[in-house]
Amino acid sequence: MKYQLTLVIISLLLFTNCRSLPNKLSQASLNKVQYEVDNDSLKIEFDNPLACPLRFSAKSSDEIIQEKIDKNFPVTIEPGKDTLLSYWSDKAKDEISITFSVLIGDSNAPIHKKEINLPFKKGHKYKVMQGYNGNYSHTSDYSKYAIDFNLKEGDTVCVAADGYVVGVIEDYTRGGKSKRWEDYANYITVFHPEMNLYTQYVHLMHKGSLVEVGDYVKSEQAIGLSGKTGYTSGEHLHFNVLKPNESWMESVTIEFKEGYKGIDLKVGEWVKK
């Protein structure tokens, strides 16, 4: 007997429940885990069609199976790879139940920072609405080094460096000032293999993505349209650079090719590309 679980990549935004808010959206189910017992072997097959690493974790109510899991998980699967793992098992087919979860990125791979481009079109300038450690919403490890630029709704968002699109949410239509809205923003996530970093472009318009998961994008390419979806007091672009850690992702400092250092950018300052 073979069991198949279709997993949804854990969004880089947490989910909440609230009746007054839209239905929660998730990225497309792009990865699968299958497991079966073949004679005395427990075989687990992982599928990663994304252009970034995925980290799979597992849990079982069976103590013996859980011991095997504790010794061998999490498992990191390289971009675009299928991997089959096999473990000895004395359990019958119907006695095994395993649940899996998945995170983006390889937390053990080194980070190679380099200067990146500002996330908007050449010839434009925008004001910094919130910088590093901003007390409005940049207060967690996940967002502490994010920068908010005052792009207007419909303004063009450009990718900051070469990379692969690994996440797109674009079907939300609304936003609000309450934190209840923080899980309901449209966004694009791009993986940059040369740096082992991810950039994220948040609060985009409804249907405001110009790219799809799997696309390879070149630095300064237009990838989306700015908006005001999710937790926001108004239209702007929330730009964040992230690295994988053991539990999820964390925000990192960055410098821009246009001569700006993220750490020096203050609220009200104009930046020009």
Q: How large is the count of helical segments?
A: 1
Q: What percentage of amino acids are in beta strands?
A: 35-45%
Q: How many structural domains? A: 2
The CATH fourth-level homologous superfamily of the largest domain: Glucose Permease (Domain IIA)
- Provide the residue-averaged pLDDT: 90
Write the H/E string, N to C. EEEEHEEEEEEEEEEEEEEEE
What separation lies between the terminal Cα atoms?
58 Å
> The CATH topology of the largest domain is what?
Glucose Permease (Domain IIA)
Major sheet: 11 strands, antiparallel
Q: What's the β-strand tally?
A: 20
Please give the CATH class of the largest domain.
Mainly Beta
Helix/strand structural class: mainly beta
Oligomer: single chain
Reported CATH architecture of the largest domain: Distorted Sandwich
What is the alpha-carbon Rg in Å?
A: 20 Å
The helix fraction, in percent, is under 10%
- What coarse outline follows from CA principal-axis ratios? elongated
What does this structure look like?
It is built from one helix and 20 strands. The protein has one helix spanning 63-72, and strands spanning 2-7, 31-38, 41-47, 54-60, 75-77, 82-88, 98-104, 125-130, 147-149, 156-158, 163-169, 175-176, 186-192, 197-209, 216-217, 222-226, 230-231, 237-244, 249-251, 270-272. The strands form four sheets. Strands 8, 9, 10, 11, 13, 14, 15, 16, 18, 19 and 20 form an eleven-stranded antiparallel sheet that branches. A four-stranded antiparallel sheet has the order 1-2-3-6, with no helix packed on it. A three-stranded antiparallel sheet has the order 5-4-7. A hairpin with a 2-residue loop joins β2 and β3. The longest helix has 10 residues, at 63-72. The chain is elongated and about 65 Å long.
